[in-house]
Known about the structure:
The chain has 598 residues and is mainly α. It has helices at 2-32, 37-45, 55-71, 78-81, 83-89, 97-112, 116-128, 135-152, 156-173, 176-192, 196-213, 216-232, 236-249, 255-268, 274-281, 287-303, 307-475, 484-499, 504-517, 521-528, 533-543, 548-555, 559-574, 578-587. It is built from 24 helices and no strands. Helix 2 (37-45) runs antiparallel to helix 3 (55-71), helix 3 packs across helix 5 (83-89) and helix 9 packs antiparallel against helix 10 (176-192). The radius of gyration is 48 Å and the shape is flat. The N and C termini lie far apart (105 Å).
Amino acid sequence: MKIHLIAILACFLVAACSDGGAMRRLDAADSLLDDRPDSALSVVRGIDAARLHTEEGRARHSLLLSLAMLKTGEISGLDSLLRPAVEYYGLSDTPSREAMLTHFAQGAAFAQTDSIGRALDEYDKSITLASGKNFAIYQALAFLNKSAVYHRIFNIDEERKSIEAGKRLMLDNGCAEKIIHAYIVSATAFGGSRNYDLAINELDNAKKYALSLGDSMNVDFLKSEKAYYMSLSGRHRDAIKIFQELNGHGCGLPKENIMAYVRSLAAVGDDVPDSLICEMTGNVGSLAEKASEFYTLSEIYVSNNDYRSALTMMDSLVSCQEEAFDSINALNVSLYRMETNLKRNAEELSDALSRENTLLIILGMIGIGVGIGIIAYIYRKGKEDIVRSREKYRRKENGYISKIGKLEALNTKITEFNDAIAGENQALRVDNNSLKEDLKAYEALTAKLEDDYRGVKAILYNNSISYHRAAATQWQNPPVGVTKKELDVFYQDRSRALSVYRREDYVKSLEDMINAVMENVVEIIRRNTSLSESNIRLVVYDILGFNYTCIAEIMEISETAASTRRYRVKKALLKLSGDNLAICKKYVIMISDGDMVQ
């Protein structure tokens, strides 16, 4: 038994260790997913999913493998590969990184299979449940992918809304590479709706970011796309110039851009090199590419006055269009057959419901008969109960009559008591009116006392300001014709007397006093200038009459510094306007004397 237990424990430990190592490798892949998806794909593919022993581990492996494949362009089998992640993360309504990524990947899978409605729904869920690392980037990508889906079904309004939302998020949160992607998607949308100038502007914005990265390949691609839209908008000379520059770099052009290059050359009457025609006519695939090729060749033949060949190309173009129309008609036939089948199924369902309704009517009639019998029984039973209830009610009624008599006697006593209370209330009203008159007299007296107090307070404040100004006059003029000893005593006395003006509480009381009797002059200066607290104090000392020598003593700075500060404060105060300047000139000595700075 011990041997068996040890073996089981060893198995659990091995499984736990293998799970732990695999989960750490999944963490490493997750950290590489956004910036180096090819490396993330290599890491995830190196993990054997069969050796993951938890449902969460298998779901996470499925999710990271699907996203890494999606980001590197491998999309085959994505739907089935993603299923474990969908079953584990996709049913949660709680925002999380895993739920966001699952719905994002599932939206991409549905978009590849043309399940338009389901793709849009999955992208919306990805936006709603966005959370965790780079969540705003994935919200932006989801909006941009939604715009691509709307582009395929020609819903231009929703396409533009999705692009604007994605581009705004990408500009606020994305790196330069992802911002470039947003501008390219926006340019494609504008180009699809034939707003070529706006498409070119978006490509120019993208090129700025590509240049900042030093990404020459991306810059060439953006130039090629810009030239393509220039060609479509009729700016053939500009388009040719860019295409020739790209050819000089040895930059390979997409087939559509080569065709645009050829059409621009033909439009301005320039010779079209045979090498370009070879590149344009090789490996043509879809009907759209065939139609574009025939149209381009017809333009070349027209520019060379070879109208017969041009007509041949136009006939081929018409054949392509007819083939496309046949495909559309085949699709319409399929839709018609589907609609017919739906109508047939609806008719069969209606017949089945009609038969069920007949059966329900029969069952209803049987039920009505049973119900009538039950109602008759209930009626007889109820009638007997009513007779018994009436007898019981009569007995209760006699008891109530007796109680009513007692209540009437009690009510008489209550009425008498209420009358007595009314008399007392009348007396209280008289007393209350008298109290109101006394209260009015008291309020009038209080108002008079408050007025007297304000007057006395103003007198005291004015006297106090006069005292401080007298002190300023006393200490700012040293005595003349005295001995050095007497002069030293003067300066010592002045230092002691002025030291009180350094205390913050004392300056605060002086400021309150000045505001009270001088129209809030200090408060006006605080609100309408950017003077520091130190310079506000200098204004207070100035209002009290101290010159710059006393201010230097109080603020413990040199006389030169005090004079300089006073000059700067003057300039700041004279910048005030209107009533504010008038009030300051009225009370602040430094701007009301004759030596004002203009």
